[in-house]
From TrEMBL:
Organism of derivation: Kaistia dalseonensis
Pfam families noted in UniProt: DUF1499 (PF07386)
Domain of life the protein comes from: Bacteria
Biased composition (Acidic residues): 257-267
Listed Pro residues bias regions: 268-280
Family matches, as InterPro entries: DUF1499 (IPR010865)
Region Disordered: start-end pairs: 254-280
Keywords associated with the record: Membrane, Transmembrane, Transmembrane helix
Membrane-spanning segments: 12-33, 45-69, 81-102
Protein name: Uncharacterized protein (DUF1499 family)
Length: 280
């Protein structure tokens, strides 16, 4: 009989799979624990760092295994490929974070009124004591988010405030302070605490309702408690809220006593401003 030499396996291949099997369960578990307030922010960041470090190790081992398979003819393609694919999935989130860090301005506090933003009263001191945006911050926000502007509705402040309160409750935001507008107070507000979608990081929100000669002006401010870069989260939150508020008040009319009345014609609300095309 002719003895056939046994084919060696790439040493890095099984390690690529071992390292890659840990990050995804860690990320999912951390997100669930944070969502149900069973994990603080600092341990969350530690778990994220470990999970992403393991993903990078899996990716490195996978590349080393591919090199050995290609050059030396070793086996282990399946575990190496599986490990690399799992690592890429786990690293998709930090890759998206890096992209937004580069493409979006370094802002963590957005308001539809940069000159006189709604003030926080119940938020932590780290938020309430923040200085007002300077000229640079205003310029960065205007260039990156030209559609983050006040909204005007031809309705009474009481009616607009009611719609805002309903939307805040529907979103599950925790109201921390509020004052409804009335005959004595032409300015009303709702302050609330929200959380980001992925890892439930805290966000402070305040909506201000001001009566003017033609109806009601609404301003919104959304501020991240953690980090100096919100990765566009606050802008997305403000946009989404105004889209829902527009829909809630679309076609609503009022009688002289302030109660709703049926309207045969649905006069459209002013659309959100469209970002200008980039200059060549």
């Amino acid at each position: 009989m002719v003895a056939r030499p046994t084919q060696r396996a790439a040493r890095a291949a099984p390690w690529a799979l071992r390292f890659a099997l840990l990050p995804l369960p860690m990320l999912i578990l951390a997100a669930l624990l944070r969502r149900y307030a069973l994990m603080e922010v600092t341990p969350l960041f530690v778990v994220l760092a470990i999970a992403w470090a393991l993903s990078i190790l899996a990716l490195v081992c996978g590349v080393m295994a591919f090199r050995s398979i290609w050059i030396d003819g070793t086996t282990g393609l399946r575990p190496a490929l599986t490990g690399v694919l799992l690592a890429i999935v786990a690293l998709a989130l930090p890759a998206a974070i890096v992209f937004e860090l580069v493409s979006l301005p370094r802002l963590s506090d957005l308001s539809t009124d940069g000159t006189d933003p709604p003030l926080f009263t119940a938020a932590p001191d780290t938020v309430t004591m923040r200085p007002l945006p300077d000229a640079r911050d205003k310029t960065l926000q205007a260039e990156a988010y030209p559609d983050i502007v006040p909204r005007h509705y031809s309705l009474s402040p009481e009616r607009v405030f009611q719609a805002i309160a309903t939307l805040v409750e529907a979103r599950g935001w925790v109201v921390t302070d509020q004052r409804a507008p009335d005959s004595d107070n032409e300015v009303g507000w709702i302050e609330a605490e929200a959380h980001t979608l992925g890892f439930a990081l805290p966000v402070d929100i305040v909506l201000r309702v001001v009566e003017d000669d033609q109806g009601t002006l609404v301003d919104m401010r959304s501020a991240s408690r953690i980090g100096a870069h919100d990765l566009g989260d606050n802008a997305r939150r403000i946009r989404a809220f105004f889209v829902d508020l527009d829909a809630a008040l679309q076609g609503v009319t009022e009688t002289n006593d302030g109660t709703d009345a049926d309207s045969d014609t649905d006069d459209p609300l002013p659309p959100l401003p469209v970002a200008p095309p980039p200059q060549p």
